[in-house]
Amino acid sequence: MPSSLALRKFLLYLCLLTLTQCSKCKNDPTPQDPAAQLPPATQTGAGTFGCLVNGQVYTPQGNTGTNNLGITYDPGFRGGSIVIETYRTEGGGLTKYLSIDAAPIKAEGSYSLNLGTGIGEVLYSSGGPAPCGFMYDSRDVTYRKATLLITRLDVNSRIIAGTFNATIARAGCDTLRITQGRFDAKF
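== Lipoprotein ==
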């Protein structure tokens, strides 16, 4: 028959083992930085896109019968035109859309997509109710400050890459902040 001291040690070890196993079940108290979940900002034609929309990660996801990411560049249309179209399907049949259209884009560099510049448009649809679930061009928004930075435009290799940011407002709706955007694709 084991001694009472051995039995107490056994029970103590059993309690400690139980406690250490339960501590693994707790949520990590330090949440991961959302920006760390974005694809890297590359310039290789990797077929990537990502940004933060009001601090939440937005990357193309899901399938509605078409590609969830399409990036095209046409050097002959409107003096050089880029069109970025993405969507993200989420639970409950919710689909979000984000697209950027800009021209003329002739070379690497920074382009203003501010409201009233006439160089481009930014569309975002959260899948929520109208009118705030849909923000699009100067007909719908009262404020847009946006920048598109083309970091690589290689017509021979057919690669376009860059970064973008946008702040968009519509009367009666929360301001939309698109930050740390990046894309890299073959066209």
